[in-house]
Write a structure and sequence with these properties.
alpha/beta; about 220 residues; about 15% strand; Arc Repressor Mutant, subunit A; 9 helices
């Protein structure tokens, strides 16, 4: 008998950003609908143009059984992260949000892009937070190799881009919001020179701010 299992993809956008939220997205499709995602051209969001991502996000939302997004704000991240063990603590916080997304979507199986070095450990971490029962399978580069996770990556990226756009409407252009973006770093440098403070929409716990916190002067060498 043909299975109508509900399958879910989970991914995030904005994990390494210094400005804006980390967005976790989940999508649920019936097993027999997955081929349609491949026919649409769904792939890792990083391999798509912004226009194509927006188009596909609308198609995915229209075709999915359920779609949801949850955010960790900069303040949320700062509460759980310290510089010394940042990745470990962020993994833990992100696993908790992914579990909430899975609980909301209640699939039979959830596929997750693993952010921990140990894929099985990350699956267990997520499962430990969950209130509903579902099989969790996490693996590296799932956003490239699993079309459901690719679909979730598109939803997460489009959702974060919309949040960034709203912030820029208020505060002005600042680029992508990542510390690797010189436009972002120039914006932050101007902000602290003018206001002598870190923006509340930026992550205060990121190492970019270390020199400023110690001396009240940003070390521009970290901004190159």
């Amino acid at each position: 008998m043909y299975s109508s299992a509900m399958l879910c993809g989970i991914d995030e956008a904005g994990r390494g950003a210094i400005i804006g939220p980390l967005v976790v997205a989940g999508v649920v499709f019936k097993r027999e609908a997955i081929e349609g995602l491949l026919e649409l051209g769904v792939k890792d969001s990083k391999a798509l143009t912004p226009a194509k991502r927006s188009q596909l996000a609308a198609e995915i939302t229209d075709r999915a059984v359920r779609v949801t997004t949850l955010e960790l704000s900069p303040g949320d991240i700062d509460q759980v992260v310290t510089n010394g063990r940042r990745n470990r603590k962020l993994n833990y916080a992100e696993a908790g949000v992914m579990a909430r997304v899975i609980d909301h979507l209640y699939p039979d199986t959830a596929y997750v892009d693993a952010c921990d070095v140990n894929e099985d450990k990350y699956s267990s971490m997520i499962f430990g937070f969950m209130k509903r029962h579902a099989k969790v399978i996490s693996f590296h580069h799932a956003d490239r190799t699993n079309v459901l996770v690719s679909a979730a990556s598109i939803i997460a990226k489009v959702s974060r881009d919309q949040r960034i756009s709203r912030l820029q409407d208020i505060h002005g252009e600042f680029g992508s919001g990542y510390p690797s973006d010189r436009k972002t770093l120039r914006f932050l440098n101007k902000w602290v020179k003018k206001k002598n403070s870190i923006p509340d929409f930026a992550r205060h716990s990121w190492s970019t701010w270390d020199s400023w916190k110690q001396t009240q002067v940003i070390d521009l060498r970290s901004f190159t």
